[in-house]
Amino acid sequence: MRCIARCGSTNSELLNATPPDDDRVHVLVADEQTGGRGRRGRQWLSWPEGSLTFSSLWRFAPGAPVPAGLSLVAGLALARALEKLGLEGIQLKWPNDLLVHGCKLAGILVELLPGRGRTPAAIIGIGLNLRLPPEADIPEQGGVTDLHTEIPALPPREQLLAAILRELHAALDLYAMAGFGALRGAWQQRNAFADLPVRIFGEGSEIVGICTGVDEDGALLVRTDAGVVRVLSGEVSLRAAP
Ligand SMILES: O=C(O)CCCC[C@@H]1SC[C@@H]2NC(=O)N[C@@H]21
Predict the structure, then answer these.
(1) Where are the beta strands (DSSP E) in the chain?
(2) Residue 108: CB within 6 Å of ligand 1?
(3) In terms of DSSP H, where are the helices of 85-202?
(4) Which fold has domain 197-240?
(5) Nearest residue (CA) to ligand 1, atom 2
(6) How far is the CA of 74 from the centre of ligand 1 (A)?
(7) Which region is the signal sequence (predicted)?
(8) What are phi and psi of 96, to 5 degrees?
(9) For the segment 44-81, what is each residue's pLDDT rounded down to a tens digit?
């Protein structure tokens, strides 16, 4: 594990300076990110004392199918770590957000690193709000929350990170062995939109229906008038339907 004071984005750092193939687990933590990135080209804002931002490189078997459910696995691991610290009411918003009381507490950005003759890898980036300044709240984006608001007795940062990494690596080991199917039930128990009307916006398309869960690959299942539609993570955005 490497801890640095500042960088643009921990995901970008790992993408640009891939550690050697034999380095099975590689984690980069930054006290401050100046160009944090979120899904769909969004910015991820963080504050030096107010956020925990890190990325973990995870290698998967050459020739294995693209690990589609990874951001769900990471979300579940993060949820489990925070639940063990006493945080209740965590919900997972497919594919990459962790919510408490409907407000975003953490986000996950998974990016694949092409093999180029090496073992293929994924970078799993996690941004967790610890103590946000008031200007961080953007109600029109559903609102944000921080860990300090949810559990006032926050453990020290290093302890929190260690607890998250423990859960993350345990979940990744199971995922590597048995696939997302082994974690699917646990993810669905925390599904923020279970049996609720949803609207999925893609590039030039829109799906409206009831969210019935996720499948063995981590794809979202939406029951529409035309039958059940499988939505792959890609460039889509999920919202509650009125
Ligand atoms: O909400 C999202 O769309 C995902 C946010 C992911 C943010 C984390 S912070 C650590 C890592 N480095 C980045 O630039 N992004 C991820």
Answers:
(1) 2-7, 25-33, 51-59, 90-93, 97-100, 103-113, 121-129, 197-202, 205-214, 220-224, 227-231, 237-240
(2) yes
(3) 147-150, 157-178, 181-189
(4) SH3 type barrels. (2.30.30)
(5) 38
(6) 12
(7) none
(8) -145, 10
(9) 988 888 999 999 999 888 777 778 899 999 999 999 99
Residue 39 annotated among the catalytic residues of the structure: yes
Look at residue 59 and give its three-state secondary structure. strand
Distance CA 77, CA 190 (A): 12
Q: Are 60 and 67 in contact (CB under 8 A)?
A: yes
The one catalytic residue in 39, 93, 184, 190 is: 39
Find out whether the beta carbon of 38 lies less than 6 Å from any atom of ligand 1.
yes
Q: Which CATH number does 2-189 carry?
A: 3.30.930.10
Residue 37 among the catalytic residues: no
| Residues whose CB falls within 8 Å of the CB of residue 211, separated by 6 or more in sequence, listed in order | 94, 191, 193, 194, 195, 196, 197, 198, 220, 221, 222
**Mean pLDDT within 203-218:** 90
Provide the residue ranges of all domains of the chain, joining segments of one domain with +.
2-189, 197-240
- Predicted ipTM beyond 0.95: yes
Residue nearest ligand 1's atom 16 by CA: 125
Catalytic residue among 2, 6, 42, 239: 239
**239 tagged catalytic:** yes
* 74 pocket-lining for ligand 1 (C-beta < 6 Å): no
Write down the pTM of the prediction: 0.93
- Burial tier of 39 (Cβ tally within 10 Å: 0-12, 13-18, 19+): buried
